[in-house]
Amino acid sequence: MHLSRDFPYLITIFTLVFSTHYSRSGAAINTVEEFLDTLINSSRYDRRIRPFFDQRRACNVTMTIHINTISAINEVNMDYNTDLIFRQSWYDPRLNYSGTDWAAKSPEITLHYSLIDRIWVPDSFFRNAKEGKRSDITVPNRLIRVHRDGKVLYSQRLLLKLDCQMKLQKFPLDNQTCVVNIGSYGFATTDLAFFWDQASNISAIRVNEDLEMPDFVLSNHEAKYCNRTTATGSFTCLLVVLHLKRLFGYYLVQVYIPSMLIVILSFVSFWIDHKSVPARISVGLLTVLTVTTQSSGIRSQLPRVSYIKAIDVWMSACLVFVFAGLLEYALVNVIARKGELRQQVRFSKEVIGNRLAQVHFYKKDGGHQSNAETMETLVHKTSNAERKLSGNTTNTHVHYSSMSNTNAPSQPTPQVVVSQPAQLAIAAKPVRDSAQFVDLISAVLFPVAFIVFNIIYWMVYLNMHVEYILK
Ligand SMILES: *[C@@H]1O[C@H](CO)[C@@H](O)[C@H](O)[C@H]1NC(C)=O
To answer: Which of 91, 203, 296, 395 has its CA 20 to 30 A from that of 414?
Structure first.
């Protein structure tokens, strides 16, 4: 009865003695376990309450970032992967142990990674993270170090996939600006503020010296602030700005030089005789097909953006050049055929004129000269001679056959027939030249146009500036 009445008092006394023993007299703490249990005892440390909450002061967190790798910069998904060490440092007065004699033994103590669940940590998050995980090989990659004045260092290694909105107008001559955006999820600036660590006079952002990216170089990086006000209050925000410069070499070797060579190859067509139809058609078609295949190969690696990229301009121009080369042949072919037709008409007119003159002559002569040459050999000769010029005999053959029927009795002398090809060659000369002339003009004009296009293209795209708005 007596004991039960005094029991609450006994417990109070016991608790008082106990807590005094552990918190005031540091001498009694002999092992690290005891020390930690004292430091992060749930009865004196509430991890739900932020530091300086009772003083109504903001908790200031300083940060540094060490970028290990940047990889998989992806234009299609507009993101990149990074492996970074994220360090946050803040003061937590409750973890100040400078009063104890443990402070002399060790000015700072590194806690086990699992103890992060027992202390307050800032609720930092990556605003532009699409995916992310902590590195857990072989144990969670975390460091928690408590200095005797209560300064906590919390470092962790993170593998993040971060969003990076790319501007591809100049692709592949472009530079990209990607960011790492760090904010506090819940605490407003009155409670929690993030700062870049300026203490040690070195940049808060360090980049691995042997950072290698296959198609980019990190030209510069900056540490910026991006504090912002949203519907739920104003929040602290830090920004790592990574300036990435695309390495043009790959695209030069894989895209620009091959397509340039194909366009030049299509110009070869102008030097081929316009009468060799298969050669010129195949050069034209193959170059068009190759450029089309090439541009579709590039397109598959890029997002479907609505604006025109530098590579689109290039590939379209190449396609226009090779296509124009093919059209030029169509034009040359038409001109050549028209010329041929005109030449045939002229030829047949001359033949008819000759024959008429002969008929006239024979009639005048009144005699029918006997000639060793038959009608068949005559026609054969003329058509042979003509084949040399035009390559097309069927029309003329029929023509002569029909004509020879009408003029069956009158057989011209051989020397008249022999003189025909010479006359034809003279008659056909200007006709053949006009087709060749178009080819000659094209052989000069196309390369000049391509060179001019190249000068304009490279001048425009090497000097073009694309504005980045950082969010
Ligand atoms: C944090 O920084 C702000 C402004 O820089 C300052 O007013 C405040 O006292 C700091 N808080 C602490 C706990 O030092």
So the answer is: 395
Cβ–Cβ < 8 Å for 141, 68: no
Distance between alpha carbon 257 and the CA centroid of its chain, in Å? 16
Q: For residue 149, report the distance from its CA to the centre of ligand 1, in Å.
A: 16
For residue 172, say if its preceding peptide bond is cis, omega within 30 degrees of 0.
yes
Residue 278 pLDDT: 94
For the chain, first and last CA: distance in Å? 72
Beta bridge partners of 74: 79
| Domains observed in the chain | 42-247 (2.70.170.10), 249-402+413-471 (1.20.58.390)
Question: At a CB cut-off of 8 Å and minimum separation 6, what does 14 contact?
Answer: none
> Ligand 1: which of 57, 189, 197 to mutate, most ligand atoms within 8 Å of CB?
57
Measured on CA atoms in the order 122, 126, 132, 137, is the torsion positive or negative?
negative
pLDDT in tens, 134-192: 999 899 999 999 999 999 999 999 999 999 999 999 999 999 999 999 999 989 999 99
Compute the distance from residue 60 Cα to the ligand 1 centre, in Å: 6
Q: Does ligand 1 come within 6 angstroms of the Cβ of 192?
A: no
pTM (predicted TM-score): 0.74
Phi, then psi, of 202 in degrees rounded to 5: -115, 160
- Measuring CA to CA, which residue among 133, 128, 132 is closest to residue 177? 128
The label of the residue with tokens 């006394």 reads 13
Closest CA to 59 of 50, 68, 67: 50
Q: Which residue, judged by its Cα, is nearest atom 11 of ligand 1?
A: 58
